[in-house]
């Protein structure tokens, strides 16, 4: 009788493990299709080539490391929270890299438009001017223009190659340049003068963004101070008066209170960020 009970227990545990493995595997496949593929595509557009499967493995590895750190340094609940954060940490990094790359591309675009305007005045065509830019300006703009020139040499129409360039980079300034260039090529406009105007417009926008950043810097700093002050005070009381803090954190009411504080802190930071984030 005992053997039958042990056998049934083993079979039940085995079936449960299979079900859990199937659910986790299906979740990873869904995650790979929806998120990892897009992340790998963003990296490819930044000339960082990594497969979707490799990105999934990297994500799971980072989440596992964060889980172990949380369990070793604090407890299982903190480990689960850190693991959830670690699961999305690579994509936060990808978004950060893309944002920095677009910002650098936009800064380089101002000089590139000025040089292309001078090239048009010298009698060069758009592919010739883009080829010179790809050789003279460093990445990321040089890489994108080099790929643009290669597409034209392979027989892709200039309009389509410009659209592909805009889709890869994801820059609003480049979208303006591509749209204006396609319209000017179809209607016969003065592209040298047009590029000078666009370059001056982008340069003026950079000046306004710098002034706005200087004016909102104090508000951003105040937001960080207000957000971190309760956390710093809680940490100070935890180490200075653990006899008061530990019983509170051990109770359900204390855990709910800490969760509510963290939630309100996040909402407050998002609201302050929304207020000081002025789009030009």
Quick description:
By secondary structure, the protein is mainly alpha-helical. The chain has helices at 2-45, 52-73, 76-121, 126-136, 141-153, 158-169, 172-187, 191-240, 242-250, 252-276. The protein is built from ten helices and no strands.
Report on this structure:
The protein has 280 residues and is an all-alpha fold. It has helices at 2-45, 52-73, 76-121, 126-136, 141-153, 158-169, 172-187, 191-240, 242-250, 252-276. Helix 8 crosses helix 9 (242-250). The longest helix has 50 residues, at 191-240. The N and C termini lie far apart (77 Å). The mean pLDDT is 82.
CATH architecture of the domain at 103-207: Up-down Bundle
User: What's the total count of β strands?
Assistant: 0
Could you say which overall geometry the principal axes of the C-alpha atoms support? flat
Unreliable runs: none
What's the CATH topology name of the domain at 103-207? Receptor-associated Protein
Please, what is the average pLDDT?
Answer: 82
The major beta sheet can be summarized as: none
What is the beta-strand fraction?
Answer: under 5%
